[in-house]
């Protein structure tokens, strides 16, 4: 089993939601955490406070959708904690809009954040380090289509493909690469989706899940820790969706 204790863990987009839950879980497992946010320093500091209760960490204010931000993230990690061992590509942007109304700026933002950021961060990680783990935060939207999520889904589908290809090439560096594909999680983006669908949590869960509940960020974080620790897992995409993939077609009936 891969031991997380004293490993330097970069978690992009960890000011709230899934990223925050992952950062805290990794700290509770003994990891040294690089908390990352783009603009909301207060959220980053709140995550860091929770991290420091269990282990130790730093806050890196960096926009990982840009080359400058990615360089700063690695520089902060190396200078303050040491060589990164675990990279969690969690930062993401989801803008809900019909395909016919796709905005070019929105599209570029989603590709820069959801796809290009993980690609370039992973390239930096694989080219310079050995013996580590990369986890990409994909989405059910990258597996099953859903109205209004076409561009977001494209970025996540490409990220899933990248995960599989990179696992082949990173194996020579003793780096494992996996992805997690959550359904609707109790986060700000999840709330936005329900609002657009004009459904509350109870009605959505009844119609679009088999378990009758939305996913908690801690449940996603637990899945991430499993993928990190299990040394036989690489090139895999684990869906955690409360059975949402099976129910998704109900939307079109």
Automatic annotation (TrEMBL):
<dbReference type="Pfam" id="PF13561">
    <property type="entry name" value="adh_short_C2"/>
</dbReference>
<comment type="similarity">
    <text>Belongs to the short-chain dehydrogenases/reductases (SDR) family.</text>
</comment>
<protein>
    <submittedName>
        <fullName>3-ketoacyl-(Acyl-carrier-protein) reductase</fullName>
    </submittedName>
</protein>
<keyword id="KW-0560">Oxidoreductase</keyword>
<dbReference type="GO" id="GO:0016491">
    <property type="term" value="F:oxidoreductase activity"/>
</dbReference>
<dbReference type="InterPro" id="IPR036291">
    <property type="entry name" value="NAD(P)-bd_dom_sf"/>
</dbReference>
<dbReference type="InterPro" id="IPR002347">
    <property type="entry name" value="SDR_fam"/>
</dbReference>
